[in-house]
Every structure is written in C-alpha cells, then in structure tokens.
Design brief:
five-stranded parallel beta sheet, 46% helix, 13% strand, globular
C-alpha cells in the first residue's frame, strides 16, 4: 500500500475547492482542511471589500497551509488553496515537499455562473478576472493533475481520485 498523499485542491475562485476538497478527503480516508481558514482577518476583510490580495498578503497564508501539509506528511490530507501562481506552489512545496496538486479547471462562464449562485462566501465575482489573469496552470515538472469541473461534485471527485491514483 502506498503512503497517503497530501493533496492541495487548487484553482480560481468558484471552481469548487470547498466542495470537492472534503469529498476527495472522504474518498481518500484522510482529513480535510479549508484553506480559507488559514487567512488572517485582514486578508478576508480585503477580499470582502473587493480588493485583490498582494503577494505580501499571501505569504503568511501560504506558509500556514504549508505547515499544515508538512504536518500531514506520510499521513495524508487534503487542503484547499487557490495556489494560482507557480511561486505560490513552490512556497507550499518548500514547506511540504511531497505535496501534490489537483487543479480544478473549467470554463470561465461556468465558474462565474456557479459563483453567482453561492451564498455566504467573501469572494465577489468581480475578482474572477483577476483570478484568471493570475492563474499559471501546473507545469510538467509539478506533481499534480488537472481535473475538469463540469458535472456533479461526485463526478468531479471521482475524476480527481482516479487521476491521483494514476500519478507515479
């Protein structure tokens, strides 16, 4: 039996990280951590006001997620984190070298539609353009998979679990 992976479910706002993350964790039999819970209050206030975070805002957040992932090494876990830039993923890998990424990827129109229907989330749809502009998809040398977000949460989770199982 292989060692359980620590998985970062990544992607722009509205791709379903908070929905797919717990489902994937349950399927893999490991704990789930909500990436938004690692944000300091100042970051949440900034995003709630429609202001995009700077890299300086993100570093402590990424370090906190990386620390959680490091603590789960060899045990497995799933955490949600946008991880839009290569430099953000590099920062996570510096703290937790064995982490793998599941990039929830989809059409902008589908994601905007989903965002417009969700309740009680601090990320406004107005920031979606900045999210797509910032996104740097996984590169060949990064451990991870891209998973299409069309379909039901259960279908997306099944695709993610299958893709992870096929990783070397």
């Amino acid at each position: 039996m292989s060692t359980p992976k620590v998985v970062v479910v990544m992607g722009v706002a509205g791709t379903g990280k908070t929905t797919i993350g717990p489902l994937l964790a349950a399927r893999l039999g490991v704990p789930y951590a909500e990436g938004d819970d690692f944000h300091p209050p100042a970051n949440i206030a900034k995003m709630s006001a429609g202001t995009a975070l700077t890299d300086d805002d993100r570093w402590p957040w990424l370090d906190a997620i990386g620390s959680w992932a490091h603590g789960r090494a060899g045990l497995g876990g799933v955490v949600s984190c946008s991880a839009l830039k290569r430099s953000y993923r590099d920062r996570l890998r510096a703290e937790a070298p064995g982490v793998v990424f599941v990039h929830l990827a989809g059409d902008r129109a589908l994601i905007e539609d989903r965002m417009s229907h969700r309740q009680g989330h601090f990320m406004p749809t107005a920031l979606l353009d900045s999210q797509f502009a910032t996104l740097q998809p996984l590169q060949e040398d990064e451990a991870g998979v891209a998973v299409d977000v069309s379909g039901s949460p259960e279908e997306i989770t099944a695709r993610a679990a299958k893709a992870l199982a096929e990783l070397p």
